[in-house]
């Protein structure tokens, strides 16, 4: 039976890499899929991995209808054996409903990939709807690590290395951004709660107030 599967995890845990691997494995067996994405770091209409892999995709912008797009494709003699939807956290709940309808009515497997929570530890609406509707939710086993070495479970937005907790839910950025840009960092829960990024931890370690005192 076809399934709606949600692969979730923090940033930097290999979601897009797995999406590209699924595409490779299935296309190597003669299957033809449709790849959709939204606001990928590589630009519009691209699905990219931090390992440097990239492929073309259909940009599922605001108002895009997955079900109508695929029905139109089939009506024109096109083929689709499965669907991959990356950056699914950015999709609207009604678009997730459309993906579920693709599974149920068009009998296609749909593999959705996305972050569960935003930089405030709040559920993205798209991810919430996926948790509600998915046949399976798979948490990726490639663990991203906090700067302290613990398992990273939270996504932090940073400006100049300092964690921020206010602003629009969706601001496109990436890990390893330059200090003056909006960036993201994965943290364990403890350091997300304390708003302690790698940069602020390093600054605290170098502060004269905490340096060891040596006697003259």
UniProtKB/TrEMBL annotation:
Superkingdom as given in the UniProt entry: Bacteria
GO molecular function: thymidine kinase activity
Amino acids binding ATP: 9-16, 86-89
Coiled-coil region(s): none
Keyword presence, Nucleus: no
Active site: 87
Listed EC numbers: 2.7.1.21
Name of one Pfam family that matches: TK
Cell location: Cytoplasm
Enzymatic class: transferase
Catalysed reactions listed for this entry: thymidine + ATP = dTMP + ADP + H(+)
Keywords, alphabetical: ATP-binding, Cytoplasm, DNA synthesis, Kinase, Nucleotide-binding, Transferase
Quaternary context: Homotetramer.
Family membership: Belongs to the thymidine kinase family.
Protein name per its UniProtKB record: Thymidine kinase
